[in-house]
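The pair is quoted verbatim as follows:
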Amino acid sequence: MICYFTVADEKARLTVISEDTSYANPKLENLKQLIIESFRENIDSCGIVFVMTREMTVALTNWMKDTDGLKELNPHNLVGTNAPSQKAGT
């Protein structure tokens, strides 16, 4: 049996899932608390979060922009270039 869903149906389903706290990522909640506590101690703080992939930089930036308590920090992503396969000078 093949079921086809419209984009609107899928968007509605994903919206319901995103609002269900049982799907919350505990690591993101820990990161949120760590960032909030750091900025609470020193309002002039700056921070960098290192991740493995370029896609993760976009995902974390979007998550921060959508999260109360973090969006006020005006997050941006910065992606470096790939390192060469061999180190220079060796």
Remarks:
- The chain has a mean pLDDT of 84.
